[in-house]
Amino acid sequence: MKNKKIIFAVLFVLFFTILYLILAALPLGEEYHFEPEWETSILNPVETSDSGKSYFFKLSNKIGYFDEHGHVTKLINIPENSKASISEKYYATYPLNAANTEFFTADGDIAGSITEAGFPFFVKDSIFVFLPGGCGFSKCDSKGNTLWTYNGVMPITAFSSKKTSTAVGTADGTIKVFNTETGEMTLEYAPGGSDNPVILGLDITDDGNYIASVSGQARQRFVLARKENTQVKIIHHNFLSDDYSTQCVVHFTNDEKSVFYNYKNGVGIFNIDSEKSTHIKEKSRIISVEESENLLFFMGKDQQNYTVYLIEKSNSLGGSFNFTADSAFIRSDNDSLYIGKNNSLSKITITKK
User: Fold this and answer.
1) In sequence order, what are the beta bridge partners of 35?
2) Element containing residue 241 per DSSP (H, E)
3) Which of 94, 97, 80 is nearest to 122 (CA)?
4) Which of 146, 274, 280, 325 has the fewest CB atoms lying closer than 10 Å?
5) Residue 15, SS3 per DSSP
6) How far is CA 347 from the centre of its chain?
7) In 3D, which of 140, 108, 105 has the Cα closest to residue 121?
8) pTM of the model
9) Is 96 exposed, middle or buried (0-12, 13-18, 19+ CB in 10 A)?
10) 318: left (phi over 0), alpha (psi -120 to 50) or beta
């Protein structure tokens, strides 16, 4: 009996030794690696001409542009008691009672003057101005002249503009969609479902056929709608576990196959093709989203703590890192992630190995 126990013990150890050697020989799963490439300060930089693709930034009381090599190609100080708007093509600084606001191209040349009183807002090469009172906005041409205007009676609480369609959400829970070029209203509907139906965030696809939104207080919910001629069809909705009392980020991926949205303590992902939902827990409030060919980056903020989340197009969390700053931003381009925090800019190369 004793010999049988010894033989059994030897075989048991031998079996697990062989199993360990087999498992150890298997390749480990690939992981994302963040490799710092450069870091530069925006304090009193020597401005250089653009030597590559440029990106815009806004940090503390400064806005400007930098290139892929870390050269600051334009730096503008925001005057005291003023605000600023900036995009890939235009920028402007303006006082709180802005009127006849001059705006500039990325290289610093005067592009024009926005004749409407209000706050300029640039989306890539599109120019908008939000009117005093917060219930209306105008679309402007490349010189700042008004092309068309929407004047509402309820405060605008969410906004998204693409090449062909522009959508706004209002405090009474209504979503309106306009032709970006002509201003013609092509759709109006209310997602509904909550006691207080305010629209907290929305996005629209380039063709204007899909609109996603987060809305309401007391049974807050995410709604995905599809335009069918002049009507709208709700194709998916889900109630959220907790109410968020602030604006939410809603984002269609560039291929328009998925839509991301944030809510209290989480990020939701809905795949339009498979009609499946994925949820990722996170405590910070999402304030920015960037997208490269295969990855999405979300930046969340909790007081002075920032967290950057890397999410694969397969809707799985690929990694995250955090840092502390008074102000910050992210930009992405292929395998590069650019990070601004306080008075510094840096580039991180992302590899999977």
Assistant:
1) 349
2) none
3) 94
4) 274
5) helix
6) 19
7) 140
8) 0.86
9) exposed
10) alpha
The answer to whether 313 and 321 are in contact (CB under 8 A) is no
Buried/exposed code over 314-323 (b: 16+ C-beta within 10 A; e: otherwise): ebeebbbeee
Give, for all 353 residues of the chain, the pLDDT tens digit: 555 555 544 444 454 445 444 444 545 457 788 899 999 999 877 666 656 788 999 998 999 999 998 899 999 999 999 999 999 999 999 998 999 999 999 999 999 999 899 999 999 999 999 999 999 999 999 999 999 999 999 999 999 999 999 999 999 999 999 999 999 999 999 998 777 899 999 999 998 999 999 999 888 999 999 999 888 999 999 998 888 888 999 999 998 999 999 998 889 999 999 999 989 888 888 999 999 877 899 999 999 999 999 988 767 788 889 999 999 999 999 889 999 999 999 999 988 87
Q: Work out the number of other CB atoms within 10 angstroms of the CB of residue 352.
A: 14
Query: How long a stretch of residues is the chain?
Result: 353
Scanning the structure block, which residue is given the tokens 């759709």?
187
In which region does residue 208 sit, left (phi positive, over 0), alpha (psi from -120 to 50) or beta (all else)? left
Pairing of strands 62-67, 54-59: antiparallel
The two tokens of residue 142 are 């490349």
In 2-53, where does DSSP find H-type helix?
A: 2-25
Among candidate residues 111, 99, 187, the one with its CA nearest the CA of residue 138: 99
Block residue for tokens 């079996």: 15
CA dist 180 to 153, 207, 209, Å? 20, 11, 14
* Residue carrying structure tokens 């087999």: 22
